[in-house]
Design goal:
The protein contains eight helices and six strands. With 215 residues, it is of the alpha+beta class. It has two domains: 163 residues, no CATH class; 48 residues, no CATH class.
Length: 215
């Protein structure tokens, strides 16, 4: 795993080393949402952003979910929100292959953005994926791959005077309900997460709290 991560970081560094290109008018930017898997760090849905511009030979996934699983005490640190993740930019083909290998479906939603907004978002993603910017302290409840993707898109739309509306009216209204949605009622992983959340597990949560748990 460490060798794979190192190789990926080398590839990502080469992708992010160049200045952001000017996207063509035919470029698209999409939100990718990936089905969960069995490992505890993959029991929730995952999000990434795809930038596709065939005219400029660009088709990269911007993935905020890269980590080193072989680091000491990874699972306890993961549950405590004490792990560092990075934003990695690499080919969409490689991103999709990793989910095909574990038989997870990946859903793509093309964002309805103007050319100016696409360029702003692409520039922001490129800047965030630079070595000096790409590392962040991951927390699976409050600051994860889904919230990072959401807020970088939201920031661009806010600058343009737009608002993002997300309908989570049918989703659970507490963290405990969210965990049961993904982990079931009788699961030691759910117990561990309940312990980490503590008294907040049964407090009512809003839409922005649910951003961390897409599906």
């Amino acid at each position: 795993m460490r060798k794979i991560l190192l190789l990926l970081l080398i590839v990502c560094s080469s992708v992010a080393a160049t200045d952001a290109q000017q996207l063509s008018d035919s470029a698209t930017i999409s939100l990718l949402t990936c089905e969960p898997a069995e490992a505890i760090y993959a029991r929730f849905w995952h999000s990434a952003i795809r930038v596709c511009d065939p005219q400029n030979n660009i088709d990269n996934a911007y993935n905020y979910g890269i980590f080193d699983f072989s680091s000491p005490y990874f699972i306890p640190k993961f549950l405590k929100g004490d792990t560092d993740y990075i934003l990695a930019a690499y080919s969409t083909e490689a991103f999709l292959e990793s989910y095909m290998d574990r038989k997870s479906t990946v859903y793509q939603q093309v964002l309805n953005l103007s050319n100016e907004e696409k360029q702003m978002l692409y520039d922001a993603l490129e800047k965030n994926s630079l070595p000096e910017n790409r590392t962040y302290r991951y927390n699976f409840v409050y600051d994860n791959c889904a919230t990072r993707a959401y807020y970088i898109i939201k920031k661009i739309l806010d600058k343009q005077g737009y608002t993002m509306e997300i309908d989570y009216s049918l989703r659970p209204k507490t963290y405990r309900g969210v965990f049961e949605e993904f982990l079931g009622r009788d699961n030691w992983q759910r117990f561990c997460i309940d312990v980490v959340i503590g008294s907040n597990a049964d407090k009512r949560i809003g839409v922005e709290n649910l951003i961390a748990f897409p599906r």
